[in-house]
Specification:
Elements lengths: L1 H33 L2 H30 L2 E3 L6 H14 L5 E5 L6 E4 L7 E5 H6 L2 H16 L2 H27 L2 H7 L3 H45 L2 H13 L26 H5 L6 H15 L1
Helix pairs in contact: 1-2, 1-6, 1-8, 2-6, 3-5, 5-8, 5-9, 6-8, 7-8, 8-9, 8-11, 9-11
């Protein structure tokens, strides 16, 4: 378990650093082609940060409203409250607020910008269909997202995607209106032409590359939350069984949509198989997550 957690943290850091390096490459090319790359970078960063700040501070309210979630009382679902409080103590966190979605499909998500403002939301189907150990595994997974500040990390990733998208758009517009061509003519022939070609390719492909890196970070944090959950409960098989049940459940989660699907412990939208689909998925394949948890369970024996 310790190895899995360390490995996933290292890979997450590597992805973020690679993302930052990619942005600096884009900024350098933009500066070389147009002459105002640094100013463009600062403007793109400010715009993206303002947009992300709004979503960061109000995303929990928006997501809960979209999902038609409601707060629950200790008297209504005492076991849910006891499980959340017990795992919060184990994780060294304040107990998150509890919400439920009236839906028979089993699933859950966590939201909130920090542990003090965190929310764990589960469907009534999850409470009905999971046994005690499976429910603990699911809550521990969501608690791990809170402890690992995954909402903050995803917000940073969104900012970086926004910066790349804006720079890409401005670079294309600049090249279209001739700024890049004028700059490239100031250089020696072949070097200018190569730089111009690189700039065009980057401007076209960089938003896609940025989106793929954001999704890769999201998938890596799911692995980390699984491993951290196994550490909290000391019973990886519970979460593995829960993931298997949730993925196999045929009932659709009506409250979910493309904007909120990435939050859930298992993607509630139907996945299409294939290697290309893995690149564009917010979640790792369920089979791989279960296999990793079962390997942890074997190592504990």
């Amino acid at each position: 378990m310790y190895e899995q957690i360390t490995s996933n943290k290292v890979k997450s850091v590597f992805l973020v650093l690679f993302f930052v390096a990619f942005i600096f490459l884009l900024v350098w090319v933009f500066e070389e082609l147009t002459g105002w790359g640094r100013g463009g970078f600062i403007l793109a960063l400010v715009i993206s940060m303002v947009m992300a700040a709004g979503s960061y501070y109000y995303s929990d309210r928006i997501v809960l409203a979209i999902s038609r979630a409601r707060p629950v009382t200790r008297e209504e679902f005492p076991y849910l409250y006891h499980t959340v409080e017990g795992l919060a103590i184990a994780a060294g966190l304040p107990a998150p607020r509890c919400y439920v979605i009236e839906d028979t499909a089993p699933n859950a998500f966590a939201t909130g910008r920090n542990p003090k403002n965190a929310v764990i939301c589960v469907t009534t189907g999850l409470l009905q269909k999971m046994n005690r150990l499976e429910l603990e595994g699911v809550i521990a997974h969501e608690m791990s997202h809170i402890k690992n500040y995954d909402v903050l990390l995803q917000t940073v990733a969104v900012v970086m995607v926004g910066v790349v998208a804006l720079l890409s758009d401005w670079m294309l517009r600049s090249l279209w209106w001739g700024g890049g061509r004028r700059k490239s003519r100031d250089r020696s022939g072949n070097a200018g032409a190569i730089l111009l070609l690189v700039g065009i390719v980057l401007a076209i492909l960089s938003p896609l590359v940025a989106q793929l890196m954001q999704l890769a970070i999201s998938r890596r944090r799911e692995y980390l939350a699984d491993a951290s959950a196994a550490m909290l409960t000391r019973y990886p098989a519970g979460l593995a069984s829960a993931l298997r049940k949730i993925a196999a459940d045929p009932e659709p989660l009506e409250a979910a949509n493309k904007a909120t699907a990435h939050l859930y412990i298992v993607n509630p939208l139907k996945n299409i198989g294939g290697k290309m689909n893995k690149l564009f998925s917010t979640h790792p394949p369920i089979e791989e997550r279960i296999a990793a948890l079962e390997k942890m369970a074997l190592e504990r024996v």
